Amino acid sequence: MNLANDSFVTVVSGLPRSGTSMMMHMLSSGGLPLLTDDARSADADNPQGYLEFAPVLRTRTDSSWVGAARGKAVKVIYGLLRDLPAEYTYRIVFMQRQLEEVVRSQQVMLERRGEPGAGLAPDKMIDLFARQVREIQTWLDQQPNVRVLYVPYADVVKEPPGEAQRVADFLALELDIAAMAEVVDATLYRQRKK
After folding, report:
1. Helices 160-171 and 20-30 meet at what angle, rounded to 10?
2. Which of 6, 16, 50, 129 makes an SS bond possible with 71, Cβ 3.0 to 4.6 Å?
3. Where are the alpha helices (DSSP H) in 31-121?
């Protein structure tokens, strides 16, 4: 398999609750190494685990980890993409999900944990997320060292093999498409837009 391409960093990004963990699991099952730690373990909201890498949160002040991510996949939440150093090349798999579903999924997760919400009404959160996503997409379009593939969460759940192949083609890697598709668990798509 052609999985030794260290000329770029594969970044999985998107809003919280948009399917980024699912995509990380798909890439791992497909044969792509991940850059992760065990700082955040699996729970009822994400039973397959979060597959995060804590140093990503400090990228603005310390981006020394990025070099080690070449040839691997790492999760970087959408709000931190601007912090990635420009001297590297990135292929970003940007997960998309209906904003109403994102907000509801976050609400359910916070309620389950007994944590307060963001203090904004759902419609205000949707407006905020929509604006932030537009801004980051505009910024990404202007970066010469970045290529982006937008992947709708609902499409992955509906047609896992096709979306897995699309991701593999974008990354130009010979990933195990069947193994990637097998990771997708439609029962975890719990906050569907009505």
Report:
1. 70
2. 6
3. 99-113
Q: Which two tokens stand for residue 108?
A: 């359910």
Residues 83 and 66: their CA atoms lie apart, in Å, by 11
* Residue-wise pLDDT tens digits, 8-24: 999 999 998 899 999 99
pLDDT tens track for 154-188: 999 999 999 999 999 999 999 999 999 999 987 76
What is the band of 194 on the pLDDT scale with cuts at 50, 70, 90?
very low
Cα(102)–Cα(129) distance, rounded to whole angstroms? 9
Ranges of each domain in the chain: 9-97+144-183
Q: What is the dihedral of CA 167, 89, 83, 139, to 10 degrees?
A: -70
Measured in degrees and rounded to the nearest 5, phi and psi for residue 21 equal -65, -40
What's the rounded Cα separation, in Å, for the pair 193 and 41?
Answer: 27
Structure pTM? 0.88
